[in-house]
Amino acid sequence: MFGEVAVFEDKPYPASAQAVAETKVLGIRRKDFLSFLAQRPGVALRIISVLGGRLRDAQGRLKDLAGERVEQRLARTLLMLSAKLGSTLPFTRQEVADMAGTTTETAIRFMSRLKDGGIIRSTRGKIIIL
């Protein structure tokens, strides 16, 4: 689910998403979604739980951004992505840099060291954790 926060705030969602595989998108009008939740409190509670988890993750990322060196942030980002998606990550080095809050150039230098150390391999638009 993407953009559900905008439903509760009645404001445009402040971010966008890009699919990494073929995807179908379904849009739901705000009033229909709120009506659906009013009729199904269990679903509303599940969404609250998901949002709470996302908030906790965001707070953790903020803490990491403030207190970790860039190499640690990049390594943590790669580990988090591989835990969720497996060893083949469908992201460019620029996308990983964006997720880690650093520049593409810094990410390229760091990932070159990982590549030289036999930890990762990269191909066009993919990073493979070895």
Helix content: 55-70%
Radius of gyration: 18 Å
Number of strands: 3
Mean pLDDT: 89
Write the layout of secondary structure elements.
Blueprint: H1 4-9, H2 30-39, H3 41-67, H4 70-85, E1 88-89, H5 93-100, H6 104-116, E2 120-123, E3 126-129
How would you describe this structure to a colleague?
- The chain has six helices and three strands, in the order ααααβααββ.
- The chain is mainly alpha-helical.
- The chain has two domains: 1-67, no CATH class; 69-130, Orthogonal Bundle (Arc Repressor Mutant, subunit A).
- A three-stranded antiparallel beta sheet has the order 1-3-2.
- A hairpin with a 2-residue loop joins strand 2 (120-123) and strand 3 (126-129).
- The model has no long low-confidence stretch (mean pLDDT 89).
- Pfam families: cNMP_binding (PF00027), HTH_Crp_2 (PF13545).
- Residues 68-130 form the HTH crp-type domain.
- This is HTH crp-type domain-containing protein.
- GO terms for molecular function: DNA binding; DNA-binding transcription factor activity.
